[in-house]
Amino acid sequence: MTRGTTLHLASALSAAAPPRANLAEQVYQELKAQMHEFRLVPGDRFSELEIGRRLGVSRTPVREALFRLRNEGLLEVESKSGWYVRPIDFTRLDQLYDLRIVLEQASIDRLAHLTTPSPELDALKAVWLVPAGERLTDARAVGELDEQFHATLARATGNEELARVHWDVTERIRVVRRLDFTRPDRIEATYAEHAKILRQIIQRKAEPARALLKAHIELSKVEVRRISLAALHEARQRAGAG
User: Fold this and answer.
1) Cα–Cα dist 145/148, whole Å
2) Above 90 in pLDDT, residue 114?
3) Cβ-based neighbour number of residue 9 at 10 Å
4) DSSP conformational letter for 45
5) Cβ of 65: how many Cβ atoms within 10 Å?
6) How many Å is the Cα radius of gyration of the chain?
7) Worst-scoring range by mean pLDDT, 72-76, 154-158, 206-210?
8) Which stretches of 37-118 are DSSP H helices?
9) What is the CB-side half-sphere exposure of residue 231 using CA atoms within 13 A?
10) Burial zone of 110 (CB within 10 Å; 0-12 exposed, 13-18 middle, 19+ buried)
11) Which has the closest alpha carbon to 214: 101, 47, 75?
């Protein structure tokens, strides 16, 4: 593996050998976490054999995990040099964020015209309309709640296909999206912005909710790009010093 990158994947597995599907899922989740935390950075190379040896598992679950990540556009493979982490495609990410806006604004329009309030919106109130002292501060936890907030808007419409496409977008941007919660001010802004959007939806005020949501996602898109570039720079500096 280049630039001294260490996977530390073996610790992610239990001593007892789980079914192959579970092993593939664990490899997938661990590698994705490594990329999210910039312990694996664009350009890092590794082989299936190397990962399998570190994990103590066969190549089959390793290969399943790697091809899943390849299908998501995070990895690529070359016949002679093995697997490598692809550069972050910010143009593609911008397009996915723009698609989020389209899908979520459509969700707001549908929610504003429901004849009966969605119980899923009540669940969001319990998370986001809370006093400042009750807000979470852990970046990972807030990142997961943020995903659920936006996914719930799509799911609450009752349109399963809309929700499915929205979740596919969520999966494809997760590796950088959660960087938006590595700073306390961004966590505070997320709580404030979600609360404003949710109140407008509950009051069936579609146009203000649409505008607030668009501004919220566009700001997140800008912040994620900036934080990603800074994190990449720091990771490369650490690699160069190692």
Assistant:
1) 5
2) no
3) 21
4) E
5) 25
6) 20
7) 72-76
8) 48-55, 59-71, 90-112
9) 24
10) middle
11) 101
The token pair that represents 96 in the structure block: 């996915």
Fold observed for domain 2-87: Arc Repressor Mutant, subunit A (1.10.10)
Mean pLDDT score, 96-106: 97
What is the average pLDDT score of the chain?
Answer: 87
Length of the chain: 242
Whether domain 90-233 has CATH 1.20.120.530: yes
Q: Which of 26, 21, 35, 29 is nearest to 74 (CA)?
A: 35
| pLDDT at residue number 177 | 86
Cβ atoms within 10 A of the Cβ of 18, count?
13
Domain boundaries, the chain: 2-87, 90-233
pLDDT above 70 (res 219): yes
- What is the residue type of 18? P
pTM for the full predicted model? 0.77
DSSP reduced 3-state for 80: coil
Residue 116 predicted with pLDDT over 70:
yes
Report whether 210 contacts 218 (CB < 8 A): no
Element housing 126 (H / E): helix 119-128
Count CA within 13 A, CB hemisphere, residue 49: 2
DSSP lists the bridge partners of residue 77 as 83
Pair 62, 52: CB distance under 8 Å = yes
Q: Which tokens go with 226?
A: 């900036």
